[in-house]
Here is the input.
Amino acid sequence: MALDLNRFYEACDPTQPLRDARYYIDFSTVRGGDIVQELERKIARLSRHRPTTQLFTGHIGCGKSTELFRLRNSLEKQGFQVVYFESDRDLEMADVEISDILLSIARNASQHLETMGLGLRPNYLQSLFQTLATTLRTPMDLSEVSFSVGIANLTATAKQSPDMRSQLRQYLEPRTRSILNAINDELLIPANERLQQRSQQGLVVIMDNLDRIDSTPRGARLQSEYLFVDRGEQLKQLACHVVYTIPLELMFSNDLVRLANRFGINPLVLPMVPVQNRQGQTDLAGLALLQQMVMVRAFPDLNVNERIDRVTDVFDGLDTLNRLCQVSGGHMRNLVRLLDGCLRKQDPPFPQATLEAVIRTERDSLMGLISDEEWTSLLQAVSRQDVQGDDDYNVLVRSLFLYEYRDRQGRWFGLNPLLAETERYRRWQQGLSTSADKV
Here is the structure.
């Protein structure tokens, strides 16, 4: 079987989440557990007929969307109707309000139900938006289009226009309670009843990419704290199962306990895939799975051993593949970005020199983002393999300078391996060695 270059190119696009099940690699054995199974059990086993709200987080690009596709597919096989959507298509991530989130859910749920032939016309919301369209003088008549299209027209306009967004908020925010009640009473509850009449389990909403909201301040609060802690009570009152992705920064917030109490559940964190353990030794299990993640993109129809036998179709040898996996730090998107960087330079098989050139470019770009103060905090965190719940470390994790891992002892943090390639880090390591020798 020859390497299909066009298919390989498409599979190595770092901007696209993994949707084809043939390319999926199960990393749960090295991530400390199967988070998708936990999310699924809460919905399908523990609270099948009671609405649940769950929170899911992790580094941007660590593979959350891929895992959520798994969750969707598993729930659909069990008879649930799953509304999966990417929130950043509807929302301006630098400026999000609770009413924006609720309307995004209403729009996507309505659209999904319409495609099933279960189009519902929420009277209160229909009337609300007809009045709003008239007030804002938007050129459309909601009575002539489906409800989901009507909301889509309004939200698309608001996303592009700060003035329109402000006017929309002034009108909607005082009515948030009524909007929430209408979404439940006129959309979600009737939808669940009709689905159950069709012998289906009910409705699940998965709101992906909400973890990408900007860390902009709302007074003395971050936007994420305002939405999920201060206003979280409203987000959990939807009358169906909901999974939100939330910013990782909330795991380091002083309000983490309040967040967990608000939703009645701790957020689930998807960690990186370890390429080494706490002691700095190679994690052979993690490395082997990352090898498969790369090679399955080249040969999705071969088995595990057959793929490794074809390494020289993609690289000049196994050492180059291992180097790629190790320098990624087990970060899914960064691994694919490095691979994409090689493809931008030449077709496979890639010599190690090509990979090293890509690594240097990525290293230098990342190095230029770090201040002296952040370097000090970074090196302290690397020494402890842990972080404190304050803003300094929040920035380090959010900026992908530090990676979070899990093992049997719990969580630990390691330096982004690209930064371990820098001269500054090497000098620091040498200083540690010199001090140890003197002792």
